[in-house]
């Protein structure tokens, strides 16, 4: 069961809202509710990893809890929904369910509270100047609209580009989706025989490709320049012409 559904089942059934909970209560919630469900689906090794990472996330939240050492359940929901595995569309649907009223209309005050909580994540890794919370964050997301329904909410947050304060959110999901993607091709800079993650191919230099590590560091060699346009690839597919020629040669058709 995905963690998004666990959040619905566990906290939805218990009726938690914006109540403030202390450290002991948080520990109890995690131990006897979320992990009770997770433990039935995961191996011990993976379960321990999930527990360790969630504890780290809680500590990150507490660092920004304004000194009182307590968190709201809403903050926990926002953080877990943002950081857990799953499709970004499912996450946004869940988030909207937490910030909308009984008529399915977004409550701006709740969305503001969501931004306050979730933007603590980039702030924790020193990206506050670019993605930190400001009192204008809500209106930068929805500058004109007065009545926000689910489809409008999804359209805005799934747009390309998304609102400035949430640019990192879809990127984080893209990184998670490609971290185990294998490319059986050599990096033109570091000479690694294969790549994992994103692959970047130059649009000017024939056959020049970089692994994500070299590309992000701005490495270049030979005639290639950082000013050249690069195309990002998140999967490996052989050139169709190459596949056609190889197939026909192998089968003796040419």
Automatic annotation (TrEMBL):
Pfam families, A to Z: EF-hand_3, ZZ
Chain ranges of the ZZ-type domain: 182-238
Keyword Cell division listed: no
Transmembrane segments: 16-37
Domain of life: Eukaryota
Coiled-coil residue windows: none
Protein name: Dystrobrevin, beta b
